[in-house]
Design a protein that fits this description.
- With about 60 residues, the protein is an alpha+beta fold.
- The protein has two helices and two strands.
- The protein has helices at about 5-15, 40-50, and strands spanning about 20-25, 30-35.
- It has a two-stranded antiparallel ribbon.
- The protein is globular.
Length: about 60
């Protein structure tokens, strides 16, 4: 991700995943935080990849 449009595309892609309640994309850190119910990191990663971006890792809290 390199610009505000990237943030918008990734945010939209993640918001479209079933169960997602909120998305926070940090351009400088190149990370995103997703909150919701019954979320699966593989599905979230696929949404980011389908939007044209790469995923380098996943951290699951809770």
């Amino acid at each position: 991700m390199s610009c505000g449009h990237c943030v918008m595309y990734v945010t939209t892609a993640l918001q479209d995943v079933a169960g997602v309640k909120s998305v926070d994309v940090d351009l400088l850190k190149k990370i995103h935080v997703v909150e919701g119910e019954a979320l699966h990191h593989a599905v979230l990663g696929a949404a980011v990849i389908d939007a044209g971006y790469s995923v380098s890792g996943t951290v699951v809290n809770g």
